[in-house]
Amino acid sequence: MQVMDDRWEAEVVEYGAINITGFRIVDSSRKHVRDFLEGWKRLDPSQSAGAGRDSISAQAALMYDAVSVLVEAFNKILRKKPDNFKNINSRSGRGQLYNNGSKILDCNHSSGRVNPWEHGDKISRYLRKVFIKLYRV
């Protein structure tokens, strides 16, 4: 399957026995999307890859949605318990982050055992609860 990022305003046309079907994942008629695209168009393409155009790729739109889900999940966690991540600190000289005495991320798998971060399950639950409002055209 191929993602078509180009705008396609024409009606569906049948060429012989080939049926071309598609859908648009970026609804440029929504105010939120129009505002984003206006800001995107004003960005300097040399500073932000793909910027300066009046549209974004499907991949960029999906990335934007993914980041929005992460932001919403973390905001909900912090609204419920604002001091949830307050104990995170960095021990100088080691470049590793700790929380309540345990390593947050331990990428050394030589022991054959991975210690999950104490907030990992909570973050996972909140990510699954994020609701993205879909609009029908």
Automatic annotation (TrEMBL):
Q: Which residues form the Receptor ligand binding region domain?
A: 17-130
Q: Where in the cell is it found?
A: Membrane
This protein's major location comes to membrane
**InterPro entries of this UniProt entry?**
ANF_lig-bd_rcpt, Peripla_BP_I
Q: Report the protein name in the record.
A: Glutamate receptor 1-like
UniProt cross-references to Gene3D superfamilies, sorted A to Z: 3.40.50.2300
Keywords from UniProt, A to Z, are: Membrane, Transmembrane, Transmembrane helix
Q: Which domain of life is it from?
A: Eukaryota
A single Gene Ontology CC annotation of this entry is: membrane
Q: Disulfide bond as a keyword?
A: no
Pfam families with a match to the protein in the record: ANF_receptor
